[in-house]
């Protein structure tokens, strides 16, 4: 048995090609992301990966649409989104495949 801490991981990413990682792979990336109300991320998209976001707790806004606990948002390659935590929130994010350097900022947003 191995025990580690999510707090020791890079921005909540615990599986994927990160350092540290519990399982180093380019096949998939998995994270538990915790946000405080008001936290945000710039609009971005992926050219290769599909990103699945599960809202575990709280409320968030992506592209002007609010999502809450138990909602699952699927972003296909080329789909752009921004992100804002409306309340404190916890999300699980899975990216398939775990493509290195596959995050592109949307210019002008």
Automatic annotation (TrEMBL):
InterPro entries cross-referenced by the UniProt entry: RmlC-like_jellyroll (IPR014710), RmlC_Cupin_sf (IPR011051)
Highest taxon in the source lineage: Bacteria
Protein name: Cupin domain-containing protein
């Amino acid at each position: 048995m191995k025990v580690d801490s999510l707090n020791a991981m890079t921005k909540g990413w615990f599986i994927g090609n990160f350092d540290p990682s519990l399982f180093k792979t380019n096949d998939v990336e998995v994270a538990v992301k915790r946000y405080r109300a008001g936290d945000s991320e710039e609009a971005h998209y992926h050219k290769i990966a599909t990103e699945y976001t599960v809202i575990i707790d709280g409320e968030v806004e992506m592209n002007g649409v609010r999502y809450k606990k138990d909602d699952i948002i699927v972003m296909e390659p080329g789909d752009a989104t921004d992100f804002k935590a409306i309340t404190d929130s916890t999300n699980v994010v899975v990216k398939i495949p775990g493509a290195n350097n596959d995050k592109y900022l949307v210019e002008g947003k």
